[in-house]
C-alpha cells in the first residue's frame, strides 16, 4: 500500500512543476499535501486475496448444498428472448410481437439465461449462465394478431395525409418450469 | 338483353353515408365538446389524434428509458453508488442486463439489486487500484474477463 502511495505521489508530482526558492528536496516518502498529491477518490483497501479465495469457496459450497437439497422457494430468471429481456417465474405468460416457428402446444427451452435468483441466493451470469446450470421450459399457447394500430401522417395546408393500419402477429408463451442444478465450481 | 353502358337517366346515390361517418365518429366518442358528435369537427380531431399517437409510439421508448434510468439512479444512491459508476462497473464486469431489467429488479428483488451494487462497488475499487498500481498490485478477482469460446 505504501509502495502504491509513493508511486501515486510521484506520478502526480510529475504533472506539477516545482519552482521553490529553497534548493533542498523534501525527505523521500513525505509528500506535501496538495490537491494533486493524492488521487481524488478515497483510498481503497481490498481484503487479503488468500482469505478471500477461501471465503468465496465456502460461499460457493454453501450455495451448491442449498441447491442440491432444494432449500429454495420460487425461482425467478432473467431470460433474453426475442431480442428483449424478460423477468420470468414459473406459470407466467409472455407475449412476443413476432412469429415463432413452433406450433401451439410445443415445449421450448430458453437457453440465454442472464440471471437466476431465489430468496437467499442469486446466480449472476457474465453475461450468460451455463446450460448445465439452469433449465427454463416454456409452452406456446396461442398465436394471434395484435389489435389494428393506426399509422397516420399529415402535413397541414398541403393536402397530404396517409393512413396505414398495422397488424402484428403475436405469440403467447407460458413459462412452465425453471430448474437449477448444483454444478457450481 | 344485356346493357353494356348505363343510360343517362340512371343516377347513383350514396347509400352508406351513415356508416362512413360512424367510422370516424367511433374514434371520437370519448372527446370533449362538440367534436364527439359533429362530423366536421370530429374529422379534424381524429386526424390529429392519429398523428399524435403515431409520433408518441417513438417517444414512448425514449421516455421509458429515462424513467428506468431515474429509478436505477435512485436505487443505487440508496446503496451509496452513483448511476454512472454503477452502470459502467456493471458493464465492465460483463453483466449485460439492460436498464429495464435492472429497474425491475430494483423494485421487485431488492436483495438481488443489493448484490449487483456490491459487485459494481468492488469492481470500481479494483479499477482504482489498477489505475494507481500500474501492474504492481495483483490483478483484481472481479475484474477478470470471462471468455466463452
TrEMBL record, chain B:
The record ties this protein, via SUPFAM superfamilies, to: Ribosomal protein L20 (SSF74731)
Name a GO CC annotation attached to this entry. ribonucleoprotein complex
UniProt keyword terms in alphabetical order: Ribonucleoprotein, Ribosomal protein
GO biological process, any: translation
Q: Where is the signal peptide?
A: none
* GO MF assignments: rRNA binding; structural constituent of ribosome
UniProt xrefs under InterPro entries: Ribosomal_bL20, Ribosomal_protein_bL20_C
UniProt family annotation: Belongs to the bacterial ribosomal protein bL20 family.
**How is this protein named in the record?**
Large ribosomal subunit protein bL20m
Amino acid at each position: 500500500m505504501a509502495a502504491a502511495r509513493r508511486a501515486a505521489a510521484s506520478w502526480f508530482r510529475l504533472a506539477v512543476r516545482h519552482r521553490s526558492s529553497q534548493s533542498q528536496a523534501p525527505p523521500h516518502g513525505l509528500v506535501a499535501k496538495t490537491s494533486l498529491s493524492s488521487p481524488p477518490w478515497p483510498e481503497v483497501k481490498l481484503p487479503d486475496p488468500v482469505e478471500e479465495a477461501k471465503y468465496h469457496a465456502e460461499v460457493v459450497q454453501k450455495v451448491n448444498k442449498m441447491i442440491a437439497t432444494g432449500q429454495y422457494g420460487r425461482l425467478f430468471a432473467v431470460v433474453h428472448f426475442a431480442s428483449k429481456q424478460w423477468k420470468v417465474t414459473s406459470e407466467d405468460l409472455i407475449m412476443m410481437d413476432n412469429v415463432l416457428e413452433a406450433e401451439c402446444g410445443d415445449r421450448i427451452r430458453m437457453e440465454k439465461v442472464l440471471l437466476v435468483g431465489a430468496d437467499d441466493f442469486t446466480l449472476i451470469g457474465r453475461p450468460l449462465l451455463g446450460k448445465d446450470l439452469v433449465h427454463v421450459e416454456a409452452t406456446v399457447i396461442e398465436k394471434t394478431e395484435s389489435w389494428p394500430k393506426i399509422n397516420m401522417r399529415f402535413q397541414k395546408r398541403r393536402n397530404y395525409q396517409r393512413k396505414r393500419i398495422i397488424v402484428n402477429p403475436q405469440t403467447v408463451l407460458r413459462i412452465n418450469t425453471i430448474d437449477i442444478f448444483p454444478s457450481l465450481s | 338483353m344485356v346493357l353494356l353502358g348505363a343510360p343517362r337517366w340512371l343516377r347513383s346515390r350514396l347509400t352508406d353515408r351513415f356508416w362512413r361517418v360512424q367510422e370516424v365518429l367511433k374514434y371520437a366518442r370519448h372527446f370533449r365538446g362538440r367534436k364527439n358528435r359533429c362530423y366536421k369537427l370530429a374529422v379534424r380531431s381524429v386526424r390529429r389524434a392519429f398523428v399524435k399517437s403515431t409520433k408518441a409510439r417513438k417517444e414512448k421508448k425514449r421516455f421509458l428509458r429515462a424513467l428506468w434510468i431515474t429509478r436505477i439512479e435512485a436505487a443505487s444512491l440508496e446503496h451509496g453508488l452513483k448511476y454512472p459508476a454503477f452502470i459502467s462497473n456493471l458493464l465492465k464486469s460483463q453483466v449485460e442486463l439492460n436498464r429495464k431489467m435492472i429497474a425491475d429488479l430494483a423494485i421487485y428483488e431488492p436483495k438481488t439489486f443489493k448484490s449487483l451494487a456490491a459487485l459494481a462497488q468492488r469492481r470500481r475499487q479494483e479499477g482504482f487500484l489498477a489505475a494507481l498500481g500500474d501492474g504492481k498490485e495483483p490483478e483484481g478477482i472481479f475484474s477478470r474477463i470471462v471468455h466463452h469460446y
